[in-house]
Request: fold
Amino acid sequence: MGAWQPVVIGFLAALATVLIVEPAWIRVARERGLVGRDMNKPGRVLVAEAGGVWAVAATAFGLFFYEAVHVYILGGPYMAVEVYALASLLLLSAFLGFTDDILGWKRGLPRWVRVVFMAPVALPLVVIKAGRSTLSLPLLGTVDLGLLYPLAAVPVGVLGAANAFNMLAGYNGLEAGMGLLLMLSTAAYAYMKGVPLVGDAALIAVGALLGFLRYNWYPARVFPGNVFTYSIGAYYAGLVILGNMERFGLLLFSLYFVKALLYLRGVLHGVWRGGVEDFGVPREDGSLEAPLEGLYSLQHLAIRLQKRLRGRATERGVVVTILSMQAALSAALLLLAWRGLL
Reply:
């Protein structure tokens, strides 16, 4: 069996898990009333909630299959500590995200409290002292953090990525599509830089995300939930840390920084009071309008771009616009890396 086959088996295991289990979850969630309103559609369209739990579980299963092939067929474990740390990171973040989805922490606890509750998610990486303390960062150059790296920088990175990934959300296929592009780009960069474990782990997640997109793409039959956004964001941070690719990881995450800056601008202008969200205002013809006059959200920027270019904006168009931005950014960064400039 070739060295490439464990990742193929892990990829297929993750893909198959979602394709087999997700339809049952959608059915049971609807029967039990675990549904939410699709805010970008006119009327009261209800969609099954928290279906991203199976994309997360499938990624963990894929990692276990990947390691099992090495142990039982190739003759021994392959970086088992790192593989199990990634799986633990996924499952811890999934537990907290699923609790948020089911118990509705967002209605009962302040956001800062929920952010703090995410702190233990980084423990698997802290325990194994993942990554190297010498970082190459945009603008700052090379920095050696010493013990501050595993004890402070790693938790902050995981916490930040998990919560930031939750910010570009609310549109059918957006979270899963962004996750797919981040994982594909991370895999390509990891293989380019000779970090096969990170590339393999990213591709296993790609299998789960492709399966989930089948049910989450417009018109969505299931929402991902915080169980998905927290976990995929934390997993992305884990891959970046294990691969010692912080500069690439931060640059690849640029759209999330833009989103955060626009959100901060809205906070300073007081526009986020009164329940205004990143959703558009749906019209009866299926088009969307931006709910605010100013520019305070990347999603609303996509609505305005569509209206200028096409004359009308749609939910699917918003998602395609943002995914196209991320794809262009990913391609540019990978081209720089291929030329040895990153």
In short: The mean pLDDT is 91. The two ends are 34 Å apart (CA to CA). The chain has one domain: 5-253. The first helix runs from residue 5 to 31.
